[in-house]
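User: Batch of two.

Assistant: Item 1 of 2:
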Amino acid sequence: MKGFAMKKIGETGWVEKERPACGPCDAICKPIALAPCTSDVHTVWAGAIGERCDMVLGHEAVGEVVEVGSEVKDFKPGDKVLIAAITPDWNSLEAQGGYAMHSGGMLSGWKFSNFKDGVFAEYFHVNDADGNLAHMPEGMDIAAACMLADMVPTGLHGVELADIQFGDTVAVIGIGPVGLMAVAGAAIRGASTIYAVGSRKNCADLALEFGATEIINYREGDIVEQIMAKTNGKGVDKIVIAGGDNDTFAQALHMLKPGGIIGNVNYLGEGDYVKVPRLDWGCGMGHKQIRGGLMPGGRLRMEKLADLVMSGRIHPEKLITHRFTGLENVEPALMLMKDKPRDLIKPLIILED
């Protein structure tokens, strides 16, 4: 098979590989829709997880099952399936402890384009198929289905990490596709005021449609000063960090009330340390929590998120601004994520049968 791969740090290209083998509990799928991610950009051009040689990229896909192992009960060839970007080993001790995304070690539930070949290929492997696949609902929009792989669960996990409650004032820092889904999740959770921090008009417009009450444009002034002014110097109850860099935590701590929580789902691709300002952290005693987490994967999660889409509670298909057809267009779609033109939110590649 052919796949689009990270050849080494800073270099990508097409490679030829053997089709992956199917274990007794596994499945082999072919993609029917794909989406590149900023995480792919961090992995290749920032070397965020270290050197990878000829590793097929990609972790966002909707697939069709072409083969299942002898122990797989609930899926068969021809099934259209949702696949989360995170595919844990569900019989692991970490999964039994409630942290399946870290099964086998920290971040080890993230297998696609990390420990094994990803989905930007003619075929890809899914471990523990009964636990990691979900049937794609009849009539589901293919774009929404593909966004369920990563953008939706990651954005909503930021909301879970921040423990947003009814009436909370919330800031969502970074309103790319993940941050936009965090805005939608904060609205569903009952936040009273949602400050969406970003500068691109199409993202700001969609944030308002998803439930943001105000846009904070970092190009128009310091975001801490803007939010503190709007909250009469009190700050916000909860913050979701879905963009920015290692210094964003310092800004977040300054604008967070004592007792508040920061939920981080931003992939920090560079640098060695995150700075925590002593005074803004209450000299270590401010009851200001920072929670960072890799989004949960798994079949149950995907089925519940699919129900949110089918009931019209969330509209992730609106994230798609650029559409391509054919596996060969993975490369230009990925370059869009790298270059981030002003009109981009998220590209989608539809594969012809």
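Item 2 of 2:
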Amino acid sequence: MKIAVHLHIFYLEMWDEIKEYLHNIGHYPYHLFVTLIQENDDLIHKIKEYHKDTSIYIVENRGYDVGAFVYFLHQIDLKQYDIIIKLHTKNKVGYDTLINHRYISRKNWVKLLYTGLLGSYALFIKNLYKFKVKQNLGMIGSQYLITSNAKNTKNVKSGVKDFMIKLGYIKPEKITFVAGTMFMIRSHLLQQIKDNFTINDFEISDPKIKDGTLAHILERVFGCLVVANGYTINGYDKNYYFECASILKTIRHFIYCRKITNHNYLLIKICKIPIYHRKQL
């Protein structure tokens, strides 16, 4: 199977960590496409030294990693590849996020996204094998981050349904996607994204905005397109340590929860009862 890997690097310091995950692809041939929002000769040299078959582009800081991914789609012929692997850097600092009834720290969220795809050479090969033998498999992500929970979509639900109609589909009854937008996908399923969007459609990225942008809408649309075309989204990773730790974290969050809401309010709850709610500067 022919593979293209797209990596959007916003947090430059994460390259050394990401390189270790890419190492788990082993000697399997792939073309690496990297997008950066600014020139960095030292990093570019390190990337090309690590993987010779690499193309690097400087893009506008629009639409976070999704805008850069759409830019990448316009640089390739999707018919030349069977599988696209989408990766990006992600901020590890912040409050826990509730996904699939589990509280996940930002650090663990990043780790799960990467390990679900490239956690080991054996898992990477297993993921490819699943694509070969399961003809109805369209997308792979971490099993812990594939979600259909309405709470994870409520701020963009109407936008997702409007865009699915625009792309020629009926409104999805259920929105299933990989929270965090790192996945392996059959390349032909991205053709409609390429045909209907460019990086110029996206807003300038603002780290203060946590949800509700076109990028957040398309994060869900990727999954909806997979399902609407008759394919499934699956994950084949297993992390017993995370599963046990998440139980303890859920208990802790029941007793004391502190987070920043999507509307930039600091919210503190004790035993599920809100005791503090104030707008952050």
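DSSP finds nine helices and 14 strands in the chain.
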